[in-house]
């Protein structure tokens, strides 16, 4: 039996970590996957990558802006209309830091970053939790009690430590970690698990244009290399699976050791 007999939903699925996660669900036997992003072109690419690895996989692609409540609700409504439930979530949609100190950060920039990274992630997880509360647990790979749903939010190592010129971004990711812990406390009694992953510097379209200037930041991590989107996706899939049935409210750091240095 697949570790993923239910329905997966991934935001930010048009690129990078979200795309690798969506394709990984397909590779690992999940046969119903919802992919959401505001980038239609990227979603088409993800759709075809999924079909390449699992031609029978049913995929629903939804243009979604996670900073807009109606867009988020419409995504969840369409997912449930098509597949009846939502079991495994990766909320990966996010934007980069504006790379300015607070005195040079405008309110608009602060609101844009937090509107997507924090408020957008919260709106997605809120809508997903509301659906999970309506559904029963699925059977698990070895018969242990299952969950009505498992959510993984993508935070960042920069939600744990700071770096120069990134208060809006670092704050947005610290908020995701804190929100994850609170939801984990609130929904444990409902058999819903909520965790987050804190990636270090990962080679994706978000960072690739700046890889040359990221060298000194990469060197902070003892492993001294950027991670891959696949290495993050693998951790997301573990947390979503019934093998992680006792993992609740964690902030799993996937950063080559950056935050320990
Ligand atoms: N790459 C890294 O080094 C790194 C490190 C730590 C955390 N992260 C986090 O990982 C997540 C994924 O980042 P990535 O590196 O894969 O970047 P990416 O740019 O490759 O992918 C991000 C995706 O989010 C989508 N997106 C942005 N705003 C959106 C919105 N309002 N509505 C819907 N979709 C939206 C983009 O279209 C894009 O497809 C982000 O939350 C990012 O903050 C990345």
What helical percentage do the residues reach? Answer: 40-55%
Write down the overall geometry. globular
Q: Measured on Cα atoms, how large is the radius of gyration?
A: 17 Å
User: What is the CATH topology?
Assistant: Rossmann fold
Quick summary of this structure?
This protein is α/β, with parallel strands linked by helices.
Question: Main attributes?
Answer:
globular, alpha/beta, Rossmann fold, two-stranded parallel sheet, 9 strands, 261 residues, binds nicotinamide-adenine-dinucleotide
Structure description:
This protein has 261 residues and is of the alpha/beta class. The chain has a single domain (7-260), classed as NAD(P)-binding Rossmann-like Domain (Rossmann fold, 3-Layer(aba) Sandwich), CATH 3.40.50.720. The chain is built from 8 helices and 9 strands. It has helices at residues 16-27, 40-53, 69-83, 107-117, 119-132, 167-187, 215-220, 229-240; strands spanning 7-11, 32-37, 58-63, 88-91, 149-154, 192-199, 202-203, 227-228, 251-254. α1 (16-27) packs parallel to α2, α1 crosses α8 and α3 (69-83) packs parallel to α5. The relative contact order is 0.15. The structure holds nicotinamide-adenine-dinucleotide (NAD). Residues 12, 14-18, 37-39, 42, 64-67, 92-95, 116, 120, 154, 156, 199, 201-202, 204-207 line the site of nicotinamide-adenine-dinucleotide (NAD).
């Amino acid at each position: 039996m697949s570790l993923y007999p239910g329905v997966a939903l991934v935001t930010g699925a048009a690129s990078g970590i979200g795309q690798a996660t969506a394709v990984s669900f397909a590779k690992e036997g999940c046969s119903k996957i919802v992919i959401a992003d505001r980038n239609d072109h990227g979603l088409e690419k993800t759709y075809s990558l999924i079909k390449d690895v699992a031609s029978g996989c049913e995929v629903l692609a939804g243009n979604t802006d996670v900073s807009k409540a109606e867009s988020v609700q419409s995504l969840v409504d369409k997912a449930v209309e098509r597949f009846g439930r939502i079991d495994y979530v990766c909320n990966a949609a996010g934007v980069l830091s504006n790379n300015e100190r607070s005195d040079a950060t405008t309110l608009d920039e602060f609101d844009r970053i937090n509107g997507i990274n924090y408020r957008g992630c919260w709106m997605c997880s809120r809508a997903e939790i509301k659906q999970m509360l309506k559904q029963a647990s699925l059977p698990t790979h070895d018969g242990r009690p299952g969950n009505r749903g498992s959510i993984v939010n993508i935070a960042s190592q920069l939600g744990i430590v700071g770096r120069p010129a990134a208060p809006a971004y670092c704050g947005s990711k610290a908020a995701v970690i804190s929100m994850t812990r609170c939801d984990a406390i609130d929904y444990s009694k409902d058999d819903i698990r909520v965790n987050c992953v804190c990636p270090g510097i990962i080679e994706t379209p978000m960072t690739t244009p700046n890889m040359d200037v990221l060298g000194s930041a990469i060197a902070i991590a003892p492993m001294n290399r950027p991670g891959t989107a696949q290495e993050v996706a693998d951790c997301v899939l573990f947390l979503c699976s019934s093998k992680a049935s006792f993992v609740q409210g964690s902030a799993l750091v996937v950063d080559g050791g950056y935050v320990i240095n």
